[in-house]
Write a structure and sequence with these properties.
By secondary structure, the chain is of the alpha+beta class. The chain has four domains: about 1-45 and about 265-405, no CATH class; about 60-250, no CATH class; about 430-445 and about 655-780, no CATH class; about 450-650, no CATH class. The longest helix is centred in the C-terminal third of the chain and has 38 residues, at about 700-740.
Length: about 775
């Protein structure tokens, strides 16, 4: 370490450049690794997470479907390869006194916390005898925000949909099995059977209603393959016993990581993008630091030659290089850790969605990430410390001459490499920005302008179906009279929103689970969603009329106009075919979808779509005030323009990727240019005699500058060309994030121009300074 300290103090400028480069690179790379970990890699926050598996029901149309409560009970009762099976279902509940807040809650089985090995504190989890009791566990975030983290909250009551529930425990910090949506409350799902919370139908008895996420813990000594085989046999038996609802379905057990990658294709692509960006920024840092150490190795060339002549072995010299690079990496890691924390906070704040509920990517700077930082710093130290040792030096020639032989070729390759990576990152950011713009220009199949949306759920304040329908009729009549409102209509779901409904239907004897929407009369006209055949719903479609539906073009391939499918033991006739739209993601492939009339199909939670003549946001307060005049206790949520779901929600992953690439791209360009400046400045000091002679012989300043910059410009142009080629190769990955084709020749040209313009000061500034020297002083110095 004394050798490293002596060298650092002797070359303070190059040392500062190397340390700052490593701090920026290690900090950004660690932040990206933390976010990628939160998105895809982090284990579940439970005891022994490697034992947890996910259970799905699978069919031809739905490879990984959710599980009904009766099927869940059969899996739990009959399986011997698992030590426990638990289920959960996300629900929206009105919490608190009127006007209540709509919060995300989780209905769970009573042994939920016990099987997962999680201990709420203060307080406790649920007891077996509390399966139908009005008890709740709060999330730690809700406990802090609504009870000021007061331990005396245990035993107090909190109203859910008007019913007092006793608080029995507080969940651990950051607990939750979903990586992104974070619930505030947990309650035993048996309270539905006890009538303590409103629910439509009988979800605990309906085998066709698949709404549960199921987790199981493998028994001691059992393997995943054994669990798969056993569950497959149970699923086959259920299909035989319940052919109306389970025919063609089978039970599937997979790991949590497999579930993450198979149920969401965009997030793995985003995690891969973050990992690639982290690798590239580290590669640029390695190139810069290796260049700095190579320059210092040249300066120490005669010293090294003398030491070799006196018996120093190559291994000893390599060890000293590694100590020096290790000290640089350690200093960079120490400075980079707070930078990583700050970058992580900025990234998570940018990851927002248009929703009232807690939705966030929650990266953690924990011991795992600390080990990643330490391991990365070690690898960087080895790479950078080994680079100077690879340069072969003629010891005899070096002892005879005071002038160090140049390693210009090696330095040029490293400079070109850094420029290439920086160029690739900037081009990829441009590709992603262009992909986002192209996706937002894509017509989703319905109007997005001039519509205000507000979610209503009269069941939260104990309305029955008749009362709720009367309430909705009053809402439509009153809202349509507000100045600036052109019309209003109800729908269960918002296109590109975060809630949706599914129904199991049978087409020509084949059972399938389909996404659907319950809508009111005039929905297709109000949303400008054209019908390509038949008609939409109108006031003539009464509850007493024959059941009808509208399907989209994709589902019409199986059941078109005039066709009938079975749903809930009823025959439903298709009266119209709507154009296929974008329902969940702007880049999604066409999917089957159908619509049911609200008059024949009840849902308590409906979204009011208000068409306005001006800015929808300007009418939000007036519409909300009118709704509260009808019923002050009615909880309102998700008040926002319909366009927000397209511009903010559907491009969520792409916007995160763009911010990451933009930040990393700018940082990489800065690192590359700093390295270029340092290397050129050092190289020009070695050419003082040549420059002095040129000036003494009458060379003009412009000629000298161009001559000095020419070689570097060639190297940079080579790096730019290579970087553009790398960006083209990476474009398919970006398509997976944005949902649109990424390659764009214009972006490549703009990127090349930007990098050249940004590089000009780093190249010309040292050349300008060198051309201003006194030739006599330069020659005397030599």
């Amino acid at each position: 370490m004394q050798i490293a300290w002596r060298l650092f103090s002797k070359h303070r400028g190059l040392t500062a450049l190397a340390v700052s480069t490593l701090a920026i690179a290690l900090g950004l790379a660690t932040a990206l690794a933390s976010v990628a970990d939160a998105i895809l890699l982090r284990p579940l926050p439970v005891n022994r997470p490697q034992e947890i598996v996910r259970i799905f029901t699978s069919s031809t149309s739905q490879p990984l479907g959710l599980v009904s409560y009766p099927d869940f009970e059969d899996f739990r009762r009959e399986s011997r390869t698992v030590a426990g099976v638990v289920a959960q279902s996300q629900v929206l509940l009105a919490a608190g006194d009127a006007p209540a807040e709509v919060r995300m809650a989780l209905a769970v089985t009573p042994d939920y916390f016990d099987v997962l090995g999680v201990s709420p504190a203060p307080g406790r989890g649920f007891r077996a005898e509390e399966s139908r009791e009005a008890v709740i566990v709060l999330s730690r975030a809700y406990w802090k925000s609504h009870f000021a983290a007061d331990p005396r909250a245990i035993g107090r009551s909190l109203r859910l949909c008007g019913t007092p529930f006793t608080i029995v425990g507080i969940a651990p910090e950051n607990f939750g099995l979903d990586r992104f949506s974070h619930e505030d409350l947990y309650f035993p799902m048996g309270v539905y059977a006890a009538g303590l919370l409103p629910i439509s139908g009988q979800p605990l008895n309906d085998r066709a209603r698949r709404y549960l996420n199921v987790y199981a813990r493998l028994a001691h000594g059992a393997t995943l393959e054994q669990a798969r085989g056993e569950l497959a046999m149970i699923g086959a038996r259920l299909a035989g016993q319940n052919p109306d609802v389970d025919r063609g379905r089978r039970a599937v057990a997979i790991t949590e990581f497999q579930a993450r990658t198979q149920t969401d294709r965009t997030m793995p692509a985003l995690a891969a993008l973050l990992a690639v960006a982290a690798f590239l920024i580290l590669a640029i840092a390695c190139a810069n630091v290796a260049t700095v150490l190579l320059v210092r190795s040249e300066a120490r060339g005669q010293e090294i030659a003398v030491r070799v002549a006196l018996g120093a072995t190559p291994l000893r010299l390599l060890g000293e290089n590694l100590i020096e690079s290790g000290a640089l990496s350690l200093a960079g890691a120490a400075l980079g850790f707070p930078l990583a924390y700050a970058a992580t906070q900025l990234l998570t704040r940018a990851a927002t969605l248009p929703t009232d509920f807690r939705f966030a990517i929650a990266p953690a700077m924990d011991s795992r990430i600390g080990l990643v930082l330490l391991a990365t710093a070690t690898i960087v130290a080895i790479i950078c410390g080994t680079a100077p040792a690879l340069r072969r030096v003629d010891i005899a020639a070096r002892l005879k001459s005071r002038t160090a032989p140049s390693s210009a070729k090696s330095r040029s390759l490293l400079v070109a490499f850094a420029v290439a990576l920086a160029t690739a990152l900037i081009a990829c950011a441009g590709f992603l920005l262009d992909g986002i713009a192209a996706a937002q220009r894509t017509h989703p199949g319905y109007r997005t302008d001039g519509v205000l949306t507000i979610a209503l759920d009269p069941a939260q304040v104990r309305y029955n179906e008749a009362q709720a329908r009367a309430f909705f009729d009053q809402v439509l009549a009153r809202v349509r009279q507000i100045a600036g409102v052109k019309g209003a209509v109800l729908a269960q779901s918002v296109p590109l929103g975060y809630t949706g409904a599914q129904r199991q239907i049978a087409v020509r004897g084949e059972s399938m689970t389909m996404w659907m929407n319950i809508v009111g009369p005039g929905y297709f006209e109000r949303m400008r969603m054209p019908l390509v055949a038949g008609r939409g719903f109108d006031e003539g479609d009464l509850a007493t009329s024959a059941p009808v539906a509208v399907v989209n073009q994709e589902l019409a391939k199986q059941c078109g106009l005039g066709c009938a499918f079975r749903m809930n033991s009823r025959e439903v006739r298709v009266i119209g075919v709507a154009r296929t739209a974008k329902y969940f993601q702007i880049g999604e492939a066409p999917r089957p979808y159908f619509y049911l009339p609200f008059s024949q199909n009840y849902a308590s939670r409906m979204v009011l779509h208000v068409e306005t003549s001006g800015d929808p946001g300007a009418l939000a307060h007036r519409v909300a005030d009118e709704l509260h005049r009808i019923d002050r206790a009615q909880p309102l949520s998700e008040i926002r323009p319909l366009s927000a779901y397209l511009t903010e929600g559907s491009m969520f992953q792409a916007r995160i990727g763009l911010r990451v690439l933009a930040a990393v791209g700018l940082g990489s360009v800065g690192l590359a240019l700093a390295g270029i400046y340092g290397v050129i400045a050092h190289a020009l000091t070695r050419r003082r005699r040549e420059i002095g002679i040129r000036i003494a012989l009458g060379a003009r300043r412009r000629t000298v500058i161009l001559a000095l910059a020419a070689d570097v410009l060639i190297v940079m142009l080579s790096g730019i060309v290579a970087g553009l080629g790398a960006a083209v190769a990476a474009s398919p990955l970006l398509s997976g994030v944005s949902g649109k084709g990424a390659f764009n020749g214009t972006i490549l040209g703009i990127t090349a121009a930007l990098v050249i313009l940004a590089s000009a000061p780093a190249v010309l500034a040292p050349a300008w300074k060198a051309s201003d020297m006194d030739p006599a002083a330069a020659l005397r110095a030599e």
